[in-house]
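Request: Show me your protein:
***
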Amino acid sequence: MIHILLLLILAWFAASVGLLVLLNWRTLLAAWREPVLACPVLIVESDDWGPGPSEDAAALQELARVLESLRDDGGRSAVMTLGVVSAVPDGQAILDGGCTRYVRRTLADPAFTPVREAMQAGRERAVFAPQWHGLEHFWPDSLLACLDERADPAQRQALRDWLRADCPRSEDLPAALQSRWVDAARLPSSPVLASAVALAVREEAAVLRYVFGAVPEVAVPNTFVWDDVVERAWATCGVSCVVTPGCRYEGRDAMGGLASPTRRIRNGDRGQGDVCYAVRDVYFEPLRGHRAEDVWRALEERTAQGRATLLETHRSNFVGPLEVRDAVIAELERALRGSLTAHHDLRFMATAELAQILRDAESPFRERDLRLRVVAWLRRIAAEAGPARILKITGLGSVIRRAGNFLGGVNFRRSHYQADC
C-alpha cells in the first residue's frame, strides 16, 4: 500500500512538472537566464520633469535634501532618476499663428533657469540622474491636428485653453496624446515616419547635451509606447538602456488606451543597437494612495526574486500645494528609511549603473551561488501568471514554495557575495 501511494505521488509529481514544462518552457528558460542580483537594489524613477515654474525648482531642492540624508551601508545616497521632458509648447505663439505651426520653449530658456539649476545641483550631489523622456511628452504634429478647425470642437477648445497656461503641464493632456512616438490625432494611432523619428531624437539629444553637458544613457519611453525605429535612433545618439514595464506597447487603440503589448521583456534582455532593458514595475504615486508599506512589500518580493526594485513616480506628486508636496516627500522618505531598516545590505544606485550590472556577468552585484540562483528562479516562476495557474491547479506551487524556503531560508538569505556589493 505504501509503495502504491509512493508511486502515485511520484506519478503526480512527474505529470505536474511535465505539464508545467510543456506549457511554459519558454517562460521557465527566460526566468532562469534573467540575471540574479546578490543584494537588494532600490531605485526611485521619477518622470515628467522639465520646463516649469520656480515651485518645481523648490520641490527638486527639497527632494535633493531628503535623498542626500539617506545613505546605504556603502555610503551612497539615495538616487532619484529624472525623466526629463526637455520642452513645452509656446502656447501663445502657437495660438497667434492660428495653430498651424508648432513653436516650443526648451529647458535652456532663461525662464526655466531655477529648474535647470536645481536639476544640475542634484546631479552634482549624485542624488539626481537625468534620463531621456522626450523633447515633448507628445508628438507635435498630433497636437496641431487636434487643434485644426476640422477636429472635435470640445477637444479643440480644451487644448486651446491648455495652451494659454504660462507653462502647460503635459500631465493635463488626454492620455492618448501623451504618447510621443505615435500619431494619436486619429485613433487607433499610426506610426510616425522613421525619418521624422530620427530628426526628433537628434533634436532631443542636442537639448540634453546643451543642458547637462552630455546625453543621458537611459531612455524612458513616454507612456511606454515605442518601437524598433525609436530604439535604433536612441542607440545612435548614445542611449544604452531602455526602461520598460516588462513589455512593449507600440500604439494606442480605438478607445485611446494602450494597444496590446507586442513583446515580453525581462531585465538584461537586449534590443536594437544592443540597448539593455531594465524593468520598472512598482508604482509609488502617493497622490493615488500608494504608501511606504507598498514599497516595503514590493522590495521584499523582488529581492526574493533576485531583482532590483524600480519605483515609478511622477512630477505631479511633488508639485502641488506646499502641504501636499511636503506630505508626499515625507512618505517617500519613510519608504526609503524603512527599506534601509529592513535590508541592511540595500544598495542605492542610478538605473544606468543597474544596466551595467545586468550586462556584466562578473559584477560583484550578480549572484553566482547556484543554490541561491535556483531559489530566485523558483520564486520568479511562482510569480509568473502562466506558470501560476498550473502550479495552483496541480498543487505543485506548494512544493515549489517549500523547496524555495528549504534551499534559501524562509527570509531568503543573502549571498556571501553581499560584502562586495
Remarks:
- The two ends are 53 Å apart (CA to CA).
- Residues 2-33 form the longest helix (32 residues).
- The first strand starts at residue 41 and ends at 49.
- Confidence is low (pLDDT under 50) at residues 410-419.
